[in-house]
Design goal:
- By secondary structure, the protein is α+β, with helices and mostly antiparallel strands.
- The chain has one domain.
- Helix content is 22%, strand content 39%.
- The chain contains four helices and eight strands; from the N terminus they run αββααββββαββ.
- The chain has a six-stranded mixed beta sheet with strand order 4-5-2-1-7-8, with helices on both faces.
- The longest helix is centred in the middle third of the chain and has 16 residues.
- The two termini are 26 Å apart.
- Bound molecules: zinc ion (ZN).
- Zinc ion (ZN) binds next to loops.
Length: 157
């Protein structure tokens, strides 16, 4: 569990940005945890709290579709035999009067074999074209690494 707390606290220091996403991927043996944060503006056309029922519905739909897009976003080489589970998305508000928001997607991963880099892809940039970069942190066993993904680079190497 310690691993996951390290991830979450690293996330909290990210600066407010509309074109930068962040992802954390941690593995302790064959069990892993994935976390992706994307500025709301890359997904939906407003980032304040929903003000009416139409916006509420739009937001719910976006949250659901982010959860459903997980298998398109996190690609682990099939030789590792990984299953994704418990994927969920939510919206986190911050800033003055909750003026900024980020979508957060989390999932648990169970593999037959501990995945190794670079056979892991995070394809969030093709799903969300408004994003320019994704900062990725991986912790696999005791090895911690950081990457910056751009539209032309979706592999962790
Ligand atoms: Zn904002």
């Amino acid at each position: 569990m310690t691993l996951f707390f390290v991830c979450l606290s690293a996330q909290a220091h990210k600066a407010h940005s509309h074109n930068l996403g962040s992802a954390n991927l941690a593995f302790d043996g064959v069990k892993g945890f994935f976390e992706l944060e994307i500025p709301a503006t890359a997904i939906i056309d407003f980032e304040h709290k929903p003000k009416n029922s139409i916006q509420k519905m739009k937001l719910q739909k976006s949250i659901q579709s982010l959860t459903e897009s997980l298998p398109k976003i996190l690609i682990l080489d099939e030789t590792f035999g990984c299953q994704l589970s418990n994927s969920q998305s939510s919206v986190i508000y911050s800033g003055k009067n909750d003026s900024h928001s980020e979508f957060k997607l989390t999932a648990e991963i169970q593999c037959l074999q501990t995945p190794t880099l670079p056979k892991i892809k995070i394809k969030a940039l093709s799903e969300f074209p408004k994003l320019e970069k994704i900062q990725v942190q991986t912790i696999i066993g005791t090895q911690q690494k950081s990457f910056v993904l751009t539209p032309s680079k979706d592999t962790l190497n």
